[in-house]
Amino acid sequence: MQHTRPLGRRRLLAAGGALGLATAAAPLLTAPAQATTPTTARKPCTRITDLGPGIEQFALMSALQVGDTVYVGSRNLEPTQVIAFHLPTRKVVARTVLGTGHSIQALAADPTGRYLYAGILTKGDEGRPNLFRWDLTTPDKPAEGVGRTEDRDIRDLAVAPDGTVYAVGGIPGKAPALWMYDPATGKVTKLGVPDPKATLARAVAATDTTVFFGAGSTLAGGDGASRASLYAYDRATGTFSDVTPPEMEKDPSLRDLVIAGDRLVLGTAASTEPAKLAVMDLADLSSYTVAPTAGKVVKNLTANGDTLHFATDAGLYSYSTATKVISPVPFDGDLGEIWGLDHVGGTLTVVSGYGFVGEIDLASGRAVVTDLGQAGAPVTPQTTMGIAADHRYAYVGGNNGIARHDLRTGKVLNLRAPGEAKDAEVLNGVLYTGQYSSQGMWTYDPAKGGQPRQLAAFPSEQNRPLDVCYDPVNELLVVGVQSDTEGGGSLWTYAPKTGRKTVHINPVDATQMVRAVATRDGVAYLGGDNPTTQGTPGTLVAFDPVAGRELWRLDLPASLTTGVAALAVRGRHLYGLTRKGGFFVVDLRIRRVIHTADHRALCPGFAAMVTSRGSVYGVSDTTLFRFDPKTFAVTTVVAGINGGWYSGPHINADHRGRLYTMRGRNLVRIEDRPVN
């Protein structure tokens, strides 16, 4: 969303103004100018209107059925918590607050059904437990932190028949280990790193004798990272053996593992090929069958005798171990992203990222759906993703949802969209989003109503859209993308009028993703970012999005050191910020960097930029700031804005030049009158 906006009238509305917002009495903030100006000069003025929580929902990332109760782990909510949904009454009957990290991806129960274990995801090492245990016999007592793995994130948990707990996960830049928690001693032990080239482990299963460790390159792929790998850890000898079926090694990672009687069942996350389901004989791991699926991922494995049930991005499926046939499980509706699947007594219990529990009777096909918010789950503000706005609506992306804010009435409508709307644009009243993961581009027209729908699919390995902007000359939406599993990235284009789409793989190079895009006079400027230790850290590429060819490129000065985080164009100048607060300006006529500065104090990490009312604005995790169009000096517009972002800050402007971003977990509209 970093491109030049149409310049609106420089008329400053009072907060709420003619829009009649409920927050019309929003406070007036004045941002002091940093440069000395004559006393007769017009003073800069900034008004902030608080539009309320960006998106409120009970977002979830894990679920597990124990007896007649489904336990659900929260996602990107504060504080982290687990709720207990009682199936007979279809009510939330208990919850426990963990309070560490941002999400709970891993849940596991001990063989007795008394204890529920939960693993935490965090943005940084908080120095606190990331493994918790909840005694389900006393649900009113909070879960206790029982241990901490040095890998920071726990992605999956398994409890062996003797009650020993095993955990896997990872930390950026470090190969994941297998961890063990002994309830008898309370000690957490690192058992080793079986795959030094893996970047993440998301699957673990355990028997009396063996622990199975599933890993790969779900994140930070390429640059020599391993593909799907499965290791067997001998509990008696403490040694690892590689038991990966060769047919699965083409996929980037193992996604799920489960022990089903005398068999080990595993599923992969796919990239260039369909995801696979495999069934291995525990007594002889060389004896197995592999079945390709129609999905991009196979997860949430559960067994019912000789029938296995699993989820993909396309819905629910069953697999007969006798006939080796995969069949869809009928469901009238959209299950979205599935985070929990269990089978008990002929009923499949499905927990959807849309925030509901579905109970499917396999004999009759009848289903009952219960919204968790209506059942008593806490509906609270979530950390957010992309933002887009026009004169009528502002949109905020969350997990499996997009909040539509009516700027006339103040009402908020939560729309359903799978995955995450990482970035978005509004053109002629229609919303266009880049959807993670591997969801391509989606669209929503409020005039037509209904729910968002997929507009265009792109290669599934090009899975993480990062920046969406509009090229008015070529009438194209252009999207910068990262490939998590293969490394590098791509540029997508989509023509709203004709429906024509293109994808250009690795337009910067094989290691640099396209993190930022800005356009001017029909040329797309691509900002490269290299997460690896090899090659150039950051490159600018001028690209013809119609012809699909590079026009010229420019490596950033060595002093900037890190990849591009954000780009914006004003006139002949291309502004850029790096991932560590480096600032640069390129004169597009002479194709040369003419200005650099260090703005780490304002911008310590990721950033976003937009051009509005003749100025370029930037927002970081902490601060909203503005650049002087003549001197390129920076001025703080809103200090301590501290947006509640999940995957980096965003900023957008409507046709009047009013800015939209986050302050904490609330959406704010900012009307700034700079002195230019």
Describe this protein with a few key phrases.
Methylamine Dehydrogenase, Chain H, 676 residues, Neuraminidase, 6-stranded antiparallel β-sheet, disordered N terminus, globular, single chain, 57 strands, mainly beta
What features would you describe in this structure?
By secondary structure, this protein is an all-beta fold. The protein has 2 domains: 17-55 and 382-673, Methylamine Dehydrogenase, Chain H; 56-295, 6 Propeller (Neuraminidase). It contains no helices and 57 strands. The strands form 14 sheets. It has a 6-stranded antiparallel β-sheet with strand order 33-34-35-36-37-38, with no helix packed on it. The protein is globular and about 70 Å long. The model is unreliable at 2-41 (pLDDT under 50).
From the alpha carbons, calculate the radius of gyration and give it in angstroms. 25 Å
Please list the strands of the largest sheet in the order they lie side by side.
33-34-35-36-37-38
The name CATH uses for the topology of the largest domain is Methylamine Dehydrogenase, Chain H
Alpha-carbon distance between the termini? 23 Å
Number of strands: 57
The CATH superfamily of the largest domain bears the name YVTN repeat-like/Quinoprotein amine dehydrogenase
Backbone shape = globular
Strand content: over 45%
CATH architecture of the largest domain, by name, is 7 Propeller
Q: The biggest beta sheet, please?
A: 6 strands, antiparallel
